[in-house]
What does this fold into?
Amino acid sequence: MNIFISKNPKELGQAAGKEAAKLINEAISEKGSANIILATGTSQFETINQLIKEDIDWSKVTMFHLDEYIDLSISHPASFRKYLKERFLMHVPSLKAAYLIDGESDPDVERKKLGDLISAHPIDVALVGIGENGHLAFNDPPADFDTEEPYLAVNLDHQCRMQQLGEGWFKSLDEVPTSAISMSVKQICKSKHIICSVPDARKAQAVKDSVEQVVSNHYPASILQKHSACSLYLDEASAGLLANS
It folds into this structure.
């Protein structure tokens, strides 16, 4: 795992977005197309802001979506489909394909459909974050490190749901969904390159656990230690508890 520390979230996002663009363009140059995964949430604001400014032939890019709440309307402010449409898809030329998770459809049917699709599209670059509870996508601790299923229906733990409330996506905890469709840990780790953007002091303990604890499903993002090409982008706040920060 390569760790890069910037002064603030904006600089973090600029560095992560530029690196993502470089890797996407390398994939297009090498094989004529690129397959990517995009995450959502406040941690990805600046990274996506930078990515949409980069010079990329988006007509050669296929995008997959990391996770989505079950039974949440696409019109809800917290919908990750809404997030990606408004913050990414509306700002770039038409992609070769964009596969968003429909959390309003039958979860098992949706998981199977997306699993078949992503299995046919080896991922070149995955953009991810780390949750306050250390989760990777919506794989809350203890995460399933063993399943071969590309997408899972998962239950969201209390800390995860409190994070969504704290970030302002919902007005009360009762409004926060209790389940979601999430890309599995093993599927994320199949990506050729992983760019993990994690700003903010509230993520500092999760970052420390992910980097300094032994790899364990109790610290889901610690699995990134084993990936051969993972870059972790932090700001001074999120890196504040690291032993060598």
Observations:
- The two ends are 15 Å apart (CA to CA).
- The mean pLDDT is 96.
- The domain at 2-235 is CATH 3.40.50.1360 (Rossmann fold).
- The first strand starts at residue 2 and ends at 6.
